[in-house]
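Priority: medium. Attachment 1 of 2:
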């Protein structure tokens, strides 16, 4: 089992290149199933979740050619429409193959993702939308079993804002008969990136980035070339690490606009932040001040940055209130941060964080992707040695995090025990 050894107390400084966005590339990889043409993708990050999605697609017969950050996919000869449990259980985003399979092949057998540590994470909205569009969907022995003719465009109003739900419905609609309108749609930049890629493939989509997306179905889509947007959550994670270690870090290959709510909070904590067209400089030269956040769907504060801001609050001056409104159990990092000496009290969906002058290094266990990032940030700011276990969680969503941190001056090493 691989672990990270971190000796805290080093200020981060220098430049770091941010990789392509995990939550944009996963639906875009799944969209390769929508055409028999070749989809060429650039700025694809090297992540465990990307490798899982590629394995899933390959198992269905999609031809895949990967050279560095460029991936070419061709689904001209799909031989299976099954997404097996063994792969789906390791990555919930596998559900994103359901709608492309349904709308192109009229059949799909996709294992239900099951829950994860941050919540039950059902996919009822995805299934309800497909049924409304004319699919016969049965739940059979833990699988979603789907049969359909050509799907019919419908107006779909999701019960809550769902990111992959919006993305799945959009992909069902691009080859459906007639018009689909998605109300209450997710507005995340990753939804817009998927829409941009689908438009490059010939899809007719408007309104992405707003809460009403309109799609007019086509007979077929063609191949395309697309560059994946930068990962705003990886960028936010490094910005929080720079602030927590009172560093001076320039993030490159980023879109500051996609991160504005997070940057406002880090600026409120006392950091000096400068931005350019594709870079962000974060400079903190004194103890941060605690900030309060409440997670909301985009354009609100992103839930995927909640744990990282909590780590920053742990070493800040004052009290910060952190309210999680998206997932029912996304405070798994709290007991681990408390092992470092953090002063945190959880009351329902709100964590009250009182900053302490100094955290002490300790043995830690990662529980989920963003919790593990939060533990790394806190360990970088702590005095002494920390060991972070189960870092396979980190590898799901960060491309060589310790390599990038070491280049910024952190004393951090990956080792196998
Ligand atoms: C996406 O997950 C992201 N993953 C998550 O990032 C992110 O935290 C989340 O959106 C919220 O922004 C990918 O894009 C691959 P939701 P998703 O559907 O789509 C409930 C990370 O760390 N819901 O927007 O699964 C659900 O339980 C990951 O990178 C239903 O009840 O999240 C949750 O409470 C973690 N029924 C809320 O909606 C459904 O059918 C929002 O979930 C769908 C969702």
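Attachment 2 of 2:
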């Amino acid at each position: 089992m691989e672990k990270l050894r971190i000796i805290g107390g080093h200020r981060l400084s220098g430049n770091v290149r941010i990789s392509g966005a995990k939550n944009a590339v996963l639906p875009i990889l799944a969209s390769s199933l929508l055409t028999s043409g070749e989809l060429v993708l650039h700025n694809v990050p090297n992540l465990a979740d990307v490798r899982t999605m590629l394995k899933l697609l390959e198992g269905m017969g999609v031809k895949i050619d990967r050279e560095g950050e460029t991936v070419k996919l061709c689904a001209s000869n799909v031989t299976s429409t099954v997404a097996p449990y063994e792969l789906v259980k390791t990555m919930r985003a596998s559900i994103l193959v359901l709608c492309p399979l349904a709308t192109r092949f009229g059949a799909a057998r996709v294992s239900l993702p099951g829950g994860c540590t941050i919540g039950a994470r059902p996919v009822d909205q995805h299934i309800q939308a497909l049924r409304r569009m004319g699919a016969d969907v049965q739940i059979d022995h833990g699988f979603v079993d789907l049969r359909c003719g050509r799907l019919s465009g419908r107006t779909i109003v999701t019960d809550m804002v769902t990111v992959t739900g919006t993305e799945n419905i959009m992909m069902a609609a691009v080859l459906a008969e007639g018009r689909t309108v998605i109300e209450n749609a997710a507005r995340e930049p990753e939804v817009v990136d998927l829409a941009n890629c689908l438009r490059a493939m010939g899809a007719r989509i408007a309104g992405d980035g707003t809460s009403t997306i309109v799609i007019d179905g086509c007979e077929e889509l063609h191949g395309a070339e697309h560059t994946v947007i930068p990962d705003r959550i990886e960028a936010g994670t490094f910005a929080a690490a720079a602030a927590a270690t009172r560093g001076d870090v320039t993030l490159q290959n980023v879109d500051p606009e996609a991160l504005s709510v997070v940057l406002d909070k880090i600026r409120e904590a006392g950091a000096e932040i400068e931005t350019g067209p594709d870079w962000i400089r974060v400079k903190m030269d004194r103890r941060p001040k605690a900030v309060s956040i409440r997670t909301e769907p985009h354009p609100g504060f992103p839930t995927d940055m909640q744990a990282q801001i909590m780590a920053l609050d742990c070493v800040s001056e004052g009290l910060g209130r952190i309210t999680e409104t998206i997932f029912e159990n996304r405070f798994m990092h709290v007991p681990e941060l408390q092992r470092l000496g953090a002063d945190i009290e959880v009351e329902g969906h709100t964590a009250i964080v009182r900053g302490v002058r100094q955290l002490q290094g300790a043995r830690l266990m990662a529980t989920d992707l963003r919790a593990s990032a939060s533990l790394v940030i806190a360990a970088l700011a702590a005095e002494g040695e920390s060991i972070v276990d189960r870092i396979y969680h980190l590898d799901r969503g960060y491309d060589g995090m310790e390599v990038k941190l070491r280049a910024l001056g952190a004393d951090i090493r990956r080792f196998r025990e």
